[in-house]
């Protein structure tokens, strides 16, 4: 995004409303593969409060020229290993897609939270899988990929260490959740 002022930072608690509204757009974008229903208020809804209340939750907001443009929600609910960072939700407004904003957000978030990471995508979201494989490879070179086919969350997961910038060994069976 040449000549654009991109800012990626932790979201302030006062930004819950804009973040919630972007989450609604995100959930709508995925409504063909994420089986959700609108509530009585005509919203998908999302429990955002935990991102400011829990110690292992990290809300990030992205702005372009001072305008909201996307977000990353990170928590500690890893799916493969017993601890680390999980990219819980990630979204870029359509206006900024294919202009490297998603890549910039991801790389800044990975750098802000060094350590073991897991990034998952729904099985049907092939475009997201392609995006994450490319971004993670750029960030650290190598990663391990797993496909989860049982449990409450199923999909493709890339595992890597953002601090060491090297491939992670496959977790042993007793590390899996």
UniProtKB/TrEMBL annotation:
Coiled coil: none annotated. Residues 20-169 form the N-acetyltransferase domain. It comes from the Bacteria. This is N-acetyltransferase domain-containing protein.
